[in-house]
Amino acid sequence: MLRFLWADFLGLIYPRLCLACREPLVTGETHLCTGCRAELPYTDFHRLPPEQNPLGRRFWGKLPLRHALSYLRFVRHGRVQHLLHELKYQGQRDVGTALGQLYGAELHAAGLAADFDLIIPVPLHPRKLAKRGYNQAAAFATGLAEGLKVPASNTALRRTTNTKTQTKKNRAQRWENVATVFEVENPAHIIGRRILIVDDVLTTGATLEACGAVLLAAGAAEVSIATIACADR
């Protein structure tokens, strides 16, 4: 009883806030408030047959994927954009980890954990990593690994070139920007394994396509992708 009273007292002084709307969480809520959990734009792509998955169709003829997954739909000026902004620019790496845990648990419950041997986040260049202090995709990968109960590696894939921002580029420009900037650190760790590549947000898919092509060339048995959010084309 005393422990719960102390927790309630600390909550009054240092309230836990919802990661999406920044309103205080109440007892029993973790990471996201009940309202945001109900209103976030979930994709549920993992419940669709592959031929009906609109995200998977984006990669047809470009990269053979086992699964194309994304937790949320990106809605400009909405809760998802706020979550991604907090993760990427405000130092809130816990946002990525928490969303990864939630999504990983959902994918595990759907029986998808058995389809993956290793989770690999899209890497940042060392200079950008040093500047930001963490890799937002790696934070998401950490949470997914916990939820799926599948190991993750932040060192299996390496970015060799510090590319310019992708924000204002079209798909062809994005592909040209990342087509040759990734390499596998140790192919022996990749050969024959089913890889889940993860990133924070998918727009054109050029970065994930480049990572997938490199991993398949290194001997991966198959690749899948998962992101926190995906933008409509």
Automatic annotation (TrEMBL):
Domain Double zinc ribbon: 10-42
A Pfam family annotated for this UniProt entry: DZR_2
Gene3D superfamilies: 3.40.50.2020
InterPro entries given in the database record: ComF/GntX_DNA_util-trans (IPR051910), DZR_2 (IPR044005), PRTase-like (IPR029057), PRTase_dom (IPR000836)
Phosphoribosyltransferase domain location: 137-229
Record PANTHER family: DNA UTILIZATION PROTEIN YHGH (PTHR47505:SF1)
Family note: Belongs to the ComF/GntX family.
Protein known as: Amidophosphoribosyltransferase
Organism, as annotated: Hymenobacter frigidus
